[in-house]
Each structure stands twice: as C-alpha cells, then as structure tokens.
Request: fold
Amino acid sequence: MIPYRKTIAITSAAVVASLMWGFCAILFPRHPALAQVQPGASVIRIASPVLVTTPRLAADQFENTICASSSNPRQLLIGVMQAVNENVTVTTADTPADSDVDYYTSSDEGASWRLALQVRHNLTNDPTCAFGPDGTMYAMAEWPLVAHDASPNRPFPRYIVGSALALFESIDTGKHWIQIDQTIAENNRMSWGFDRPWIAVDQSSARWRGTVYWAVRYTVFIISKTIFGRTWVAPPGGDGEYIGRVAAHGTVIHKSNLMRFYDSVLMTGQLGVLSDGTIVSAMMDSGNGRDVLGLPLPPAGTLWALVSTDGGRTVTRKVIGNRKMLNGDGIHHLPEAHWLPAVAVDRSSGPFRDRVYVAWTEASTGRKQIWVTHSIDVRKGKWASPRVVDDSRPFDPHRLWLGPNNMNQAIAVNDKGVVGLFWGDRRNNPHGGYQPRFMASLDGGRTWSASVPVTKKSVSSPGFTEPGDHWGMTADAAGVFHPVWLAPYQKNNQVFTTSITVEKSGPIANH
Reply:
C-alpha cells in the first residue's frame, strides 16, 4: 500500500465564469456553460509523488502516457518520449537518434518502476499503450523514415520520406517484448507522415474481445501500408485519420481508412471501446479545408465524435456540441497548447456504464481552460453541451488572455464510475510554470468537486512553455487513479506519477 501524503475534503464552492475577450464576442457564446461544483463532500487522497524515469536522468523527458490492467490493480505501464540530442533538427537527421521512447512497468500499484522496453530509431516518438483482457501489454511507437540524397539542389543529405508505426506485445508483464505489427506511411518528401497514435483493446465479452485497435493522424500524399509483405495503398490525400485492427497476439485482421481531410490540421483523440464492442474516438480539426468529397469543413476548432459499430470497418462522424471552438494559439500571446482531446469510457456496472467523456483545452472564454462533455447517446451522436470545468479564476477580468492558461488535460473513469480529471494548472504561476491539479465527478459529469493540487509546490519554468504535448492518466482495477506529469529533477524534466483515491459519501445517482 502506498502511504498517502494528504487527505482533502471537498466541499461546495462557486465556479467562476469567465467573460470573453473583444473580437470573439460575436463568434463565440459570451457565457459558456460552466460545470457545477459537487454538492456535499467527497474525500480525495493523494499519495506522495513517485519518480518514474530514474534510469534516464541524463535525458530530458517530455510526452508521456499510462495504462493499467483491467484485472490486476498492481500492473501499470508508462510510455515516455525523451530527448537524446536536442541540437539535431528534423530535416537533417544526421545522428543516430534525436528522441527515444521508453516503457516502464510497475507491479506494485505504482510504488516503483522498472525500465522494460526501449524503442530506438531516429526520432522515435509518441508512446501509447494498453492492456488486453488477459493481461497482455501492448505498446506503440513511431519514427520517421530517412533517405539519402546528396544532389546539389538538396541543402541537407538526408530527408524524411515517411514514417513507421510499430506495435509491441508482452505476455509476461513486460519482461520480454516482441514486435507484432509495423505500418509504413510514404509521403514523397513532402511531410512528416504518421503523428500521435493511440491504441485501445476491446475488454468486452462481445465479438471482438481482445482485439487491439489503433488510430493515428497522418499528413501524407501517398499512403502505403505494408504488413508482413502485404500492402494497402490509399488515393492521394491530405491530413486524415487512419484506423487499424489487430487480433490478440499479432494476427492482422483489417486496416482501413478512417477519415480523410484536405488542408486541415487534425488532432487525434484517444480510443475507447464500449461494452458491446463499439469503438469511440474524438478528433479536433482546424477547419479551413475540404473533406474527401471536396465539401467545405465546418468552422475552425470543430470537435468530432468518431464511432464504429463493426470493428472499425466503417466509421461515422458527428460534430460534438454544434458550436465553434477556438484553440487560441497566437491570439493575445496566449501560450500554445496541443488540442489533443482526452477520451475515457465508463466500463463500470453503474448507472453511467458506456458513457463516453471527452476533455480538451479551449480558449473561447478568452483564456485557455479545460472543457468537458459526455455522451448522451453516442451511437446517435447525442452529447451534453460542452462546459468549462477547471475552476481557476482569471488574473484580470478585463484582460483575460493573461490567464491562467491551463493545458495538458487527461481524463479517466474508475470501476465505480467515478470520473477523474487532471491537468496542468497555472493559477499560482502568473509568470511561468504550472501545478498539476485533479478534480472528480461522482454523478456522471453533471457536477464536479473543487480541484485540488496534486503536488505541494508549483513547477517553475521560464515563460509559458508547454511541458510535453500530452500527459496521461488511468484508473486501475481497484479504482485508484494514476496521473503522470513532468517536473524538473536535477538538470532535466522527468516523469512523475502518484496514486489518487476518491471516496464518495453514497451511491452514485443516475441523472
């Protein structure tokens, strides 16, 4: 059992609405819906932080993710992307590696961690992981493909010509790993290729139980996928989404085009699987482009729900919230923050079973805040109205862009149906830095507790740099939440985690 650092009783408190700033008043709702504070009292217990990346203290860590076994609360897996040589640019790629991906396992509920898998290619990035219903661990990483070209009209001798996406499997709690799948994207030297994959495993008792699903954003002109000698070729396109399906232990079943857009920047959300095998994801697009049929896309910042009821062979898409959104990058000097939607599915046996939650960062209130929504009927495309959830007050109500500007949201649901929300908060850091905070909902996202700090002190950093593109959080089989975040340790940023329990005063009521 992990010793708990503090116990915090959450009582009712008002969540303050933010006004919008000038030119957005016409485009965006002036008074966005705000989450209510949880009535009554719940207790949140937070353990002392644990350093995960001890074996790699000499390297600067950044993007991270975490997953948990659905049957063994002691088994956890964390993926971390780390800088190897910050002086190497993407265009030159003249050294063996610029970034690596490491995976760490824990067999004691997160109290200690062991380096279990190292993925070493040029510019390896974007870790993501999942557990199968039988305890099998799955881990993914991607890296660019580099070609040589010493012709006089080329300023650099090596160029990125595509990317590879690899899936790894361990059936012995991370002691041994094998690569079971690899997918290639070729892009004729025009763009990066794959970006920000996510994986999920069907934990249901339905037809596709144990199937591994993955989705990935790509920016390509020609796509070819080669798996064990078989190739799938897509027509020329632009930005898009791609989904794959792999049976347990490496049998490739199906790979198909999930979504294609032209001239639009996409941010891929996490995947979730419902109790009947329905696949759900979310995606944010920047608009200003056209879809595969040549039709104009909706306004900038559209949040999409992606749903498949046939194992990923076909996918429907619905706009969530029917409203315009604003990321805010470049406006009033707002700090940049990735739009990656965080997605979680309630797999409990409670009243909100199969409810899907989506959290993201948005600046429609005049500063960057954490927004949430949840499904009402995901198959029919019905969602609750998106709402601001983070309870930070503006530094200056007349200059909202001054912040606090929050980021790096993560969301998870435990086995009792309790929803946990985690993010990097800047209410105590007006001049730079952040502090991880956590809040919970006991009634399916209708109301939320006041947020609590996860660490005793804020993290100091020069300016408002984004601490990694993505932070993760999961809930283990015993209902304990495990967030991961970055914080300076010695000379570099390192990955930390902790254990958070939420106790409710009574049964969760259906609303």
Observations:
- The radius of gyration is 22 Å.
- The mean pLDDT is 75.
